[in-house]
Design a protein that fits this description.
This protein has 20 helices and 14 strands. The chain is of the alpha/beta class. Helix 1 crosses helix 3 (51-60) and helix 9 (193-220) packs across helix 12 (276-288). The longest helix has 28 residues, at 193-220.
Length: 461
């Protein structure tokens, strides 16, 4: 098939590359001149493991090209199918901003001969139906086909998807999707476009709920002999539940879950529908990033105050804090909802002196993101002289670091907050640091001996 993919962001570029390898003739449409220039030079403007190599291989086939105009390309050689993968960022009220979708569809629907139109952008239920009402003739050649790509495994998720959701009103729309995904083995869910729109939102809302549930349980695992890792391991082995998305931390902060849960809650509100569970999921998540600040105020208050009883009620003045990690995940360069975007400004606002280290983000970008913070060039540079280190990204460089050496660089009270529960509790409990995680994490020796965690004075609050 001759395929146009409009919008060469994370989803669009992954799709363009994957469809090329499936044997289609693909044209990626991108209007940002800098991004288009990078694509034409064979450089991936978004971060995803394996994407640069796959982009190069796709370009070498001669079946992938990039341009800035779907109209001009269609006029030369008409497309069979057009995929719309532009963004739907959150508006100020939490609703999905459909400006880009509307603008693209206005252009696509003027193309002659008319191609099949496949919308992949995440949109509220009923959006496709609204578009069909305002554009006569669209129903027969339209499909809503949401993506379910995980950052870090997007290419594999496209090649071997867990399911293909086809929201169509006509047999011709469904057949176009079957031809597009020919050779891809996966269960098919054939439904209406509104049903497909709800499947996308409901899927992300459920994943967000699992994360918030794990974080709420972590708050209950605060006793001396309840290990959150063991609890979630035991829960996840139930095949009805599974281990995925049960990792406690400072909340969900990727590019989809925050905006999609808020958008779904907003949509339900406009429809007069009550969503107490969804709103509780959002509330737990909104509060989770504050956990790091709470621990810092509790742990550093006595150590840095001017006198007995001083609990830094007015902030964290005089505290030197090392923030380790800007990104939500090492394999994603999307920073829109990363915990660092909340934690670092909050620390600065309470008077702390903050140094930020992230091996995947250059110091200039880091300094621009956090005015008032110092961008550290290395992990030791960030930690040296700090009263506390806060791990916000599970970078291998942090997990595998010489924490005994780093502990020696810290100043008292040598607090380490593991916001991703990624450090080894056995190693951290054996060091002269105060180790705090999301929920209690016990070293194996404490579990096997039955010793109380609170027997170690370094772990007292």
């Amino acid at each position: 098939m001759r395929v146009a993919v409009i919008g060469q962001g994370y989803v669009g570029l992954t799709g363009a590359v994957a469809l090329t390898h499936q044997g289609h003739q693909v044209t990626g449409i991108e209007q940002d001149p800098d991004r288009l220039r990078a694509l034409r030079e064979g450089r991936a403007p978004v971060f995803e493991p394996g994407l640069p190599e796959q982009l190069t291989a796709a370009g070498a086939t001669g079946r992938l090209r990039f341009t800035d105009s779907v109209t001009e390309s269609h006029r030369r050689t008409p497309f069979d199918i057009v995929l719309v993968t532009v963004g739907t960022p959150p508006s100020a009220d939490g609703s999905a901003d459909l400006t880009q979708v509307d603008a693209v569809l206005e252009e696509v629907l003027r193309l002659l001969p008319a191609p099949c139109v496949v919308l992949k952008s995440t949109v509220p239920p009923g959006t496709s139906a609204m578009l069909a009402e305002t554009h006569p003739g669209l129903r027969e050649r339209f499909a809503y086909n949401p993506e379910f790509l995980n950052q870090g495994s997007a290419l594999e998720d496209w090649a071997v998807p867990a399911r293909i959701v086809a929201g169509t009103w006509s047999e011709s729309g469904l057949e176009a999707l079957r031809e597009l995904y020919a050779g891809v083995s996966a269960p098919w869910v054939a439904t209406t476009p509104s049903g497909a729109e709800m499947i996308k939102y409901a899927s992300n809302a459920f994943l967000a709920t699992k994360i918030s549930f794990a974080n709420e349980v972590a708050g209950m695992c605060c006793g001396p002999d309840i290990d959150i890792d063991h609890v979630m391991q035991g829960v996840g082995f139930d095949p009805r539940i599974g281990h995925a998305f049960l990792q406690p931390g400072l909340g969900y902060g990727d590019s989809c879950l925050p905006k999609d849960t808020n958008a779904l809650a907003h949509w339900a509100g406009t429809e007069g529908l009550a969503t107490p569970l969804l709103r509780a999921t959002i509330a737990v998540n909104d509060a989770q990033a504050g956990l790091a600040i709470q621990i810092l105020r509790t742990e550093l208050g006595a150590g840095l105050g001017d006198g007995p009883g001083d609990d830094l009620a007015d902030g964290l003045a005089d505290a030197e804090i090392a923030v380790l990690g800007v990104r939500y995940e090492p394999w994603s360069d999307d920073l829109r909802a990363a915990p660092s975007r909340t934690v670092v400004p909050a620390l600065l606002g309470q008077g702390a002196r903050v140094r930020v280290w992230d091996p995947g983000t250059d110091t200039g970008t880091t300094a621009g993101l956090f005015p008032g913070a110092r961008a550290a060039a290395s992990l030791p540079d960030a930690v040296e002289g700090a009263h506390a280190a806060v791990v916000l990204t599970e970078w291998p460089q942090a997990i595998e670091a010489d924490w005994r050496g780093l502990a020696a660089l810290l100043d008292e009270p040598r607090l380490v907050i593991d916001g991703k529960n990624c450090l080894s509790p056995e190693q951290m409990h054996d060091l002269p640091v105060r180790y705090r995680s999301v929920g209690t994490r016990l070293p194996p020796s404490a579990v096997h001996s039955g010793a109380s965690r609170r027997a170690d004075p370094r772990m007292e609050a």
